[in-house]
Design brief:
With 274 residues, the protein is of the alpha/beta class. It has a single domain, classed as Nucleoside phosphorylase domain (Rossmann fold, 3-Layer(aba) Sandwich). It is 32% helix and 24% strand. The protein has a five-stranded mixed barrel. The radius of gyration is 17 Å and the shape is globular. Bound molecules: hypoxanthine. The site of hypoxanthine has 14 residues, from strand 5, strand 8 and strand 9.
């Protein structure tokens, strides 16, 4: 059986055959954020099914393809559709594409997601720049034998989200007139949304928003020494004393509004990475 490093090489090589450019930035597009992919000057689009060892996407609102090209003049590879732990994938499968993007040559990873807002000062469709995270998923993509060529056994997590990128994002949002909070993302396994008691606990733990993705990818990105920038879109309010049943179609609509804002903000940020 092939080891992880060989699988990464296989996948990266297959992608290089369709697109030989070395990307600087990797972008993971979360729920409802497909619009951003349209802004990329596309040079190649590769379906996950055509990449060796890539899992395939099962969620309807997620496409499953790599979009390769340039954004604001910077070579970029974007995942239109990500893999979630709740779909039944292992943490290693969820994070495999991050390894592959690293092998392709990226030095910066931008992650996005739809999240439930627990900070009462947040509003629907607001953006939050992720300043820090809490892993409450009950698993870890780095569990198991460590390949020292990919990263250290005990990766440091004192600054998972690059403070310079956070400052660039904050200043860009200000310039564009887009509300962007800075806060803490907490990841749960899902797929059910949380109970009132759970929201109370998660908020008490110090989180501003909650979601079911991102943290595995960021852990692997840090393991691979990538600079990381993360954004959440507040798609529903999760205030335990004023909780309403979650309406997934409404969540997707709000995600699209936030997605429009991110579609303005991210190219502005990427332009400054040159
Ligand atoms: N929990 C609650 N609301 C959400 C989530 C979540 O994980 N993701 C998007 N909205």
């Amino acid at each position: 059986m092939l080891g992880l490093a060989a699988k990464i090489d296989d996948a990266a090589q297959a992608i290089r055959q369709a697109w030989s450019t070395r990307p600087r930035v990797g972008l993971i597009l979360g729920t409802g954020l497909g619009g951003l992919a349209a802004q990329i000057q596309q040079e190649a689009v590769i379906h996950y099914g055509n990449i060796p060892h890539f899992p395939t996407s099962t969620v309807e609102s997620h496409k499953g393809q790599l979009v390769c090209g340039t954004l604001s003049g910077v070579p970029i590879v974007a995942m239109e559709g990500r893999f979630h732990f709740y779909e039944g994938y292992s943490m290693q499968q969820v994070t495999f594409p991050v390894r592959v993007m690293k092998a392709m040559g990226i030095d910066t990873l931008i992650v996005t997601n739809a999240a439930g807002g627990m900070n009462p000062q947040y509003e629907l469709a607001d953006l939050m720049i992720i300043e820090d995270h809490i892993n409450l998923m009950g698993d870890n993509p780095l569990r198991g034998v460590n390949d020292d060529n990919l990263g250290p056994r005990f990766p440091d997590m004192c600054e998972p989200y690059d403070h310079q990128l956070i400052e660039i994002a904050k200043a860009s949002a200000l310039k564009l007139g887009i509300v962007a909070h800075k806060g803490v993302f907490i990841a749960v396994a899902g797929p059910n949304l949380e109970t009132r008691a759970e929201y109370r606990m998660l908020r008490g733990m110090g989180a501003d928003v909650v979601g079911m993705s991102t943290v595995p990818e960021v852990i692997v990105a840090k393991h691979a020494s990538l600079r990381v920038l993360g954004f959440s879109i507040v798609t529903d309010m999760c205030l335990p004393d004023a909780l309403e049943p979650a309406d997934i179609s409404k969540i997707l609509k709000v995600a699209a509004v936030g997605g429009e804002r991110l579609s303005q903000l991210i190219p502005h940020v990427v332009a400054q990475l040159k």
